[in-house]
Amino acid sequence: MFFEKFFEEFEIGESRESQGRTITETDIVIHAGQTGDFYPHHMDAEWCKTQPQGQRIAHGTLTFAIAAGLGAGAINSKAMTYGYEKLRFPKPVFIGDTVRVTFTITDKQPHPRKPGFGLVTEHTVMTNQRGETVMVCDHVHFVECKTGPDA
Amino acid sequence: MFFEKFFEEFEIGESRESQGRTITETDIVIHAGQTGDFYPHHMDAEWCKTQPQGQRIAHGTLTFAIAAGLGAGAINSKAMTYGYEKLRFPKPVFIGDTVRVTFTITDKQPHPRKPGFGLVTEHTVMTNQRGETVMVCDHVHFVECKTGPDA
Amino acid sequence: MFFEKFFEEFEIGESRESQGRTITETDIVIHAGQTGDFYPHHMDAEWCKTQPQGQRIAHGTLTFAIAAGLGAGAINSKAMTYGYEKLRFPKPVFIGDTVRVTFTITDKQPHPRKPGFGLVTEHTVMTNQRGETVMVCDHVHFVECKTGPDA
Amino acid sequence: MFFEKFFEEFEIGESRESQGRTITETDIVIHAGQTGDFYPHHMDAEWCKTQPQGQRIAHGTLTFAIAAGLGAGAINSKAMTYGYEKLRFPKPVFIGDTVRVTFTITDKQPHPRKPGFGLVTEHTVMTNQRGETVMVCDHVHFVECKTGPDA
Amino acid sequence: MFFEKFFEEFEIGESRESQGRTITETDIVIHAGQTGDFYPHHMDAEWCKTQPQGQRIAHGTLTFAIAAGLGAGAINSKAMTYGYEKLRFPKPVFIGDTVRVTFTITDKQPHPRKPGFGLVTEHTVMTNQRGETVMVCDHVHFVECKTGPDA
Amino acid sequence: MFFEKFFEEFEIGESRESQGRTITETDIVIHAGQTGDFYPHHMDAEWCKTQPQGQRIAHGTLTFAIAAGLGAGAINSKAMTYGYEKLRFPKPVFIGDTVRVTFTITDKQPHPRKPGFGLVTEHTVMTNQRGETVMVCDHVHFVECKTGPDA
Question: Which CATH number fits domain E2-144: 3.30.450.20, 3.30.230.10, 3.10.129.10, 3.90.580.10?
Answer without folding.
Answer: 3.10.129.10
